[in-house]
Amino acid sequence: MAKITLGCEPVVGSLTPSKKRDYRVTNRLQEGKRPIYAVAFNFIDSRYFNVFATVGGNRVTVYQCLEGGVIAVLQSYIDEDKDESFYTLSWACSIDGIPFLVAGGINGIIRIIDTGNEKIHKSFVGHGDSINEIRTQALRPSLVVSASKDESVRLWNVHTGICILIFSGAGGHRNEVLSVDFHPSDIYRIASCGMDNTVKIWSMKEFWTYVEKSFTWTDLPSKFPTKYVQFPVFIASVHSNYVDCNRWLGDFILSKSVDNEIVLWEPKTKEQSPGEGSVDILQKYPVPECDIWFIKFSCDFHYNAAAIGNREGKIYVWELQSSPPVLIARLSHIQSKSPIRQTAMSFDGSTILSCCEDGTIWRWDAVATP
Amino acid sequence: MSSKPSLSASASASGSRSEHSKDPTTNKLPETSPIPRDISSVIDSLKKQALADRCVSIKERMEENRQRLVGITKHLHKLSEERRNNRNSDIDKSVDLLTKRQRDALDMQNGNDANNGDKASHCSQEDGHVSSAVLLGSSIAVKNAVRPIKLTEVKRLPPYTTWIFLDRNQRMTEDQSVVGRRRIYYDQTGGEALICSDSEEEAIEEEEEKKEFADFEDYILRMTIKETGLSDPVLEALGRYLSRKPCEVKARYEILNKGEKSVVGSKNGVIEDISQTLTSYLDKDLDAALDSFDNLFCRRCLVFDCRLHGCSQDLVSPAEKQLPWNHLDEDNIPCGAHCYRLAVKSESIGMVSSPVCADFEDKTAPSSDGAGPHLSSRKNCGPSSKRRAKSCQSESASSNGKNISESSDSEIRPKQDTTSTHHSSSPPKTRLVGKCAIRKRNSKRVAERVLVCMRKRQKMVASDSDSILSGRLWPRDMKLRSNSRKENEDASSSSLKKVKPSITGRSRRKCSPVQDSNKLVEGEVPEGQMNEMINDPPASSSDDTLRKEEFVDESMCKQERSDDKSWKAIEKGFFEKGVEIFGRNSCLIARNLLNGMKTCLEVFQFMNCSENKPFFRAGDGSNSMVEGYSKVDFNETMGNEVRRRSRFLRRRGRVRRLKYTWKSAGYHSIRKRISERKDQPCRQYNPCGCQSACGKQCACLLNGTCCEKYCGCPKSCKNRFRGCHCAKSQCRSRQCPCFAADRECDPDVCRNCWISCGDGTLGVPSQRGDNYECRNMKLLLKQQQRVLLGRSDVSGWGAFLKNSVGKHEYLGEYTGELISHREADKRGKIYDRENSSFLFNLNDQFVLDAYRKGDKLKFANHSPDPNCYAKVIMVAGDHRVGIFAKERISAGEELFYDYRYEPDRAPAWARKPEASGVKKEDVAPSSGRAKKLA
User: Fold this and answer.
1) What's the mean pLDDT in B555-572?
2) What ipTM does this complex have?
3) Where is the SET domain (chain B) (predicted)?
4) What are the pLDDT digits (tens) for B672-686?
5) Which residues pair with B849 in a beta bridge?
6) Given CB atoms, is A1 within the 8 Å cutoff of chain B?
7) Residues B84, A47: C-beta atoms closer than 8 Å
C-alpha cells in the first residue's frame, strides 16, 4: 500500500449527504433464491438505455424500466447446467448492431447471447476458472474483456468469437483477477485489479494488429494466433487487500478494496521504463460497512455520479467529479438488509438499481427535490 | 566545440546560485535560536498552506479531467445514437426481438396502467410497506409472459491457472517472490480468508517503508530553515513533525542545497552528457568497458541476460589459455589501405595515391560472402576492371579457403575462433574437439568427403553469385564464376594433398552467420564507408559500438591523425586481447578489435616498439581472411602445414594419454559419490574459479560436485567429470559412465559423442550410420516426444502421448521456474490449500515450480502404477528433469508417473501402502483438484 506522504494527502469526501438529489424505492423484485451478482443498463445502444439485465444463478434476465417505477421482464435465459452461477454480464453488440448480452460465471464459459434473436450466439471456452467481470469497449462494442480466477484477463471479439489477447504471464496478476475496465478514450488501454492487491494497467498498442485481424478472421477461431501480453505498463499498489472493482474516470482510476472506501488516483507512468511509475491518490469516497469483497460500484453514462451498495443493503451515491467529493444521497430501506453486490445507474443517473445477495432487485428513482 | 561554452556557463551559473542559496542561512544563523513554539507555528502554517495548495491542485486536476471526460462521453453518446440510427435505416427488414419485446412491454404497461391504476401510488410511498406490497402487480404480469430460453450446456474445462509455456527452466525473478509478502488466500470451499505472513517478514516490510523525502517534505524543510534558520531546535522540531531523526533532516537539507546547485548545472550539462556517453567507452580501460558485458553475458548459455543462470555470475576465466590463432595460408595481400605491408611497399615505391588505396580496400575487402563485395566493388567503380575481377575471385574463393583454414584451425585450437567470431560463437564449434580424433583416424575417408563437400560448395558458390548477379550477367561475371570454380578446385585439391581433414558442414554453417553480419553491416553503412565496415564481419559487440561512434570522423581523417594519436588504455587493452587471440598479426588485430581506432600499420608499429622485437616474418602477419586466395604459395604453406601438424599431433597424443589416465582415476570416485548420495538430493553445480588443478579449497569439491567444463580449472583437474568414450553402446546403459551418473553426454567432454542434424549431411560420417550415434543427449538436443494436453481419464487435465514409444524412451522435460526451497515452502502453503501444486524438487538448492510457467508435462497425473518415470539429469552443468517411458506406451495413451511424495507429506490420494525411499516431491494438479471436485 502506498504510504501517503506529506503534501500528497487525498481529499476525503464528507459522509453528510448533500441532499442534492433524493431517491425513493419504486419497485422491488424477487428473482429467485440465489444471489444476484450483477446488474447493468445497456449504454451501448441508445434505443436500449432503459433496458437492463441481471445475472444470478444460472439465469440471465433482461428487463425494461418503464415509467412510474414499473419493471417489465423482456427476456429470460437459463443455462442448462444447473451448477452454473453467473457472476457478471455486459452489454455488447455485433458489427451489425445486434444487441448482445455477454455473461460469465463460475464455469469459466463466456456466453454471448444474441438478444435480437433470443438465442445463444457463441460460447467462449478458454478461461481456466470462473469469470469475475466482463466489460465492453464502448468505442468498439464487439470487443469485450474478461477477468478470471485463472489469473488472466482476456480480450475477445464477440463478432468472430476469437480470443485475441491474454493479459497474463511474467508480469501478470498473481491471484484471481476481480475487475477490469477499458479506458474510455484510449482504446489500447485497460486496467485490471484483483486478489493480488494490485491494479495493473495494460497496453495493447503493440498488439493492435491482432485486434484488427480478429475482425476479418475467417478460419477457425482456435487457429487464431492468440498473443500473450505478459507485461503491464503500470502496476499500482494502492490497496492492501483484495481490489474488487476498478473503473477509469478519464485518465484517473477509481478503485475499491475491502476497506470501506473508493479511491480515486492518478497513475503516473514513466515512458522509458514500463512497469514503473508512481501513484498520486487524489480523492477518497468513504463507503461505510463495505468490508466484504465482490461489491462493485457503477457510474452513470457521464461519470457524474457513482453508486455503491454495502454489506447492510444501503447505497451511497457519490458525486464523482467534484472536489471535495460530495455525497449526493445515502439510500436505505428498512427491508433492504442483504449485501448489495452491484448497482446500476441509468443513463442520466435518475434511476439506480441494486441487486442483492438474497436475490432481490431494487429500483430507486430520483425524486424531484422540492 | 559546443560543449565548451556550455560547460563554463554552467559553472558560473551554479557558482552564483550556490552563493545565493548560502546567503539566507549564513545570515540567519547568528540571529536565530528561536523559541520552539515559533518553529512549530512556522511549520504549522507551512503545513496548512501545503494542504490548501494540495486541495487547489486536486481541484484543478479534477476539473481538467472533467472537461476531457465531457468530450469523451459526448462522443460515446454520439456513437450509441448512431447505432440506433443505423438500425433504424434497415429496421424494416427485421425488427430484432429485443426491440419487439420492448414495444410489447410498453404496450402492456399502458394497458395495465388502466387496470391497476393504483400502482403508481404504491411506488411513491414505499418505505413502510411490507415486501409483498412492493412487488407490483404490473411487473408480475409482464414477467409471466416471458418463457425462459434455454442455453445449451457447454462442458466446462477442468480448472487451471493461465500459464506460460517454457521450453527451458527459468530462474525466478525477484518480483515473483512471495517471501516477505503478505498474502491473502480465500478458501472457496470453506469460505474463509487466510492471511499468510510471518512475523519476521513483516519486519522487513517495515524497514522498506523508510522512504525518501517527498517533494513536499523537502519544501517544508527548506522553507522552515529559510525562515527560522538552521539550528538544533529547528531540526528537532522538523524531525518530530516529519517523524524522522534530526540528523536525517540535516543530511537531507545538505543534499537539497547541493541539489539546487546541480539542477542549474545539469541543464547545461545535457550536451556535455551526450558527448560524454559517446566517448565514455574510450575513456575506460578494457576491463571497465567489459564490466557490463561480464555482468550480463552468460558464458554457459552464450546469451545476454540469461534467464536460467541470471546476471552477475561469477566470472570464471579458464586456466588453460588458448594458443593464438594460427592461419595456414599466407600471402602478401594487404589487409587494407593502411596495412603495414602497403606502408612498407609504399616507402620503397614512393607515394601511393589515395584513390588507389581506396581501390585496394575494395579489392581486398575480404569476406566470405561472395555477393556483397561484388556489389560494392561495382558501385565504387574502381579504375581497373581487371583488378576488380581478380578481387572477386579472391572473394568467392575466400569462402572456400576460409572454411578450409578455419576447420583445420579449429582442429588445432577448437575454441579460439569463438572469440574472434563473436556473433557466431556457439557450442557447435567447441564440439569439434570430440570429433577430432575420429577424423584423424579416418583421414582418408574424410578426404573423400572433403572432395564431396568442395563440390557441393562449388555449386553453392556458383548459385550464390547466380542469384545475386542474375539481373546483370556480364561476361566478366561469367568469367569470374568459372574462375572461382576453378579456384575451388584448386583449393580442394590442395587441401587434399595436404590431407587436411574435415571440411565439415559445420564450418560451412559457421560461415553463414558471418555472411549475414556482412549483409547487415552493409545495410547500416553509407556506401562510401562500406568497405571499412565489411572488413570487419566478426567484430565483437562492444567493438561495434565503438566503431559506430568513432567511425565517421575516424574514417575521414584517419590517415592524417593516425600518427599523432597516442594509445588509449582501452586500445591497449584491445591490443593485448588481440595478441592473445590472433597472435602477432596486426592485420587481424586491427580489423577485428581496433577497427576505426587504429590502423593495421599503427598496430604493427605499436606491436614492434612495445615488444622491441625485430620484424617478424611477413607471412605471419598475413591476412587470414584472404587465406583461401588462389595464389597460395604452396611450398610455404606446405612447410608450415607439416610443422603445424606435427605440433598438433604431439599435443593430441599427450592429451589422449592424459585422458586415459584420468578416466580410470576419475570414474571411480564419481561413481562412488553417486552411490553414496543415492538418497540425497543432487547438488547444484557452480563453476569454480580455480586456476590450477583443484585442491581442497576448490568450491566444487567442497560443494560435493564434479568440476565441469565451465570451471576455471585445467582439464587435468582431478575433480573433473571425464565424460565417456562409448562407441557402440550408444551410451544407453549404465555401462556408459555418463548414463550411470545420471548425466547426459556432452560433446565437449565425451570422446565419441557428437551432435548431428540427423540426416548426416552436416558432418557426421555417414558410414558410421545410426548405430554409433550417442543416445544420451536427448534433453540437450530437445529430442522429445509430442505431448498432447487433454481431459484426463482419471481426473482433471492429463498429458497424452501422440506417438507410441518404446521402453526408456525420453518423452520430454518437466520445465518450470527455479525457486529456492524457502520460496517453495511459502508458495507450497497456498498450493497445498488449493490442493494443486506443481513443485518438483530439483536439487539441494532449487525447486521447480510449474504453476505459472512450465510445459504440458506438468499436467501428467500421479499413479502408483505409472507408465513413466522422472529422472533428474545433469545436462551441461544444469540439473533438469526428464520424463521417460517406463514401458512401451502406445499412441494416445495418457501419461502417469509416480510423484514420489515424502510419505509423511503425501496427500491421501497419493499415499502408497508401502512407503519406499522417496525423494521427489510433487503434487498432482489435476488429481488434486479431482479430489476437491469429486
Assistant:
1) 56
2) 0.93
3) 785-900
4) 222 233 455 678 888
5) B817, B839
6) no
7) yes
